[in-house]
Specification:
This is MICLK protein. It holds the Pfam family bMERB_dom. InterPro entries: bMERB_dom, F-actin_Monoox_Mical. This protein is mainly alpha-helical and 160 residues long. It has one domain. Helices cover 87% and strands 0% of the residues. It contains four helices and no strands. Helix 2 packs antiparallel against helix 3. The radius of gyration is 35 Å and the shape is rod-shaped.
Amino acid sequence: RKQATEYSTSSSDEEFESKPSLTHKAKRALRKRRKLEKETKQLIKQEELKRLHKAQAVQRQLEELEERQRALEIFGVELERELRGEADSGTKDENQLLHEWFELVMEKNKLMRYESELLIIAQELELEDHQSRLEQKLREKMATDDSLKDEMDLNEEDEI
């Protein structure tokens, strides 16, 4: 009996010593959760910065595009006058003027397509930003215990 009692006591002591205390586990889990939250926030900020830089680049390209379109418009007006005979075309013949006119129209169409592409990229960036904000809002809502939420909070979480 003594041996059996000693054996059972020693084995239960070993089990107790081999398992870390619950508070230690809770602290470790809390630290791990905070670390993950911090890393997630950093990743979100990095993504926001990337989107911001891309949006700024798109905005610059749109402004440059607008300037090029204005310059083409001015050149087109002068070319049109020459074709109508309102301005002195100098040594240029009508075929050369028409060729320049068609090249101008092609360039203008090319710039308009490029502008459309840039506007689509800008819209994608806005949608990505909106999605990111919604995801962050959902994370915050889900971090709260369900027992503490009222029906309005649960409905809002479902809607997000």
